[in-house]
Amino acid sequence: MSASAIPFHVFPVKVIDFSDARMSLALTQNQAGTAQPQLDILLPAGATHRQLRALLHAFSANLELNTPANERWLIHNDCCVGPNHGRIYLELAEGDEAEALRGMLLLDTLRG
């Protein structure tokens, strides 16, 4: 990384209030039986598919930027049934209990 100035770009941003979103944290298992930390997100009725996708991308980006450099997990998101239900989950590199706990702690930062 260089120490040069970061270019500054200004563009319009649409702000949407997601304070009514319900988020629940769970340690699930993937199809192979490996631990999979997951944050389930349910937006209020009337939310659109695009609003859900935007929220999932924004939250995923936040997680990527706050993941320690030594972690090798992958961050995924997907939409579930309906336009207001989605999830963010971690595909763990090692799948052990310690890594799962660190992943759960990271996901929990999104709940405030």
Descriptors:
2 helices; 27% helix; alpha+beta
Major sheet description: 4 strands, antiparallel
Rg is 16 Å
Cα distance spanning the termini: 30 Å
- Tell me the strand percentage band: 25-35%
Shape: globular
Task: Please identify the structural class as seen in this structure.
Answer: alpha+beta
Query: H/E element string?
Result: EEHEEH
Count of runs of 4 or more consecutive helical residues: 2
Main sheet: strand order: 1-2-4-3
The stretches of 5 or more residues where confidence is low (pLDDT under 50) are none
Give helix % range.
25-40%
Mean pLDDT: 90
Which oligomeric state applies?
A: single chain
Number of strands: 4
Protein architecture, described:
This protein is of the alpha+beta class. It has helices at 49-66, 97-108; strands spanning 22-29, 35-42, 74-79, 85-91. The chain has a four-stranded antiparallel beta sheet, covered by helices on one side. The chain is globular. The chain starts with 21 loop residues before the first strand and ends with a helix. The mean pLDDT is 90.
Layout of secondary structure:
Blueprint (H helix, E strand, L loop, with lengths): L21 E8 L5 E8 L6 H18 L7 E6 L5 E7 L5 H12 L4
Summarize the structure.
The chain is an alpha+beta fold and 112 residues long. It has 2 helices and 4 strands.
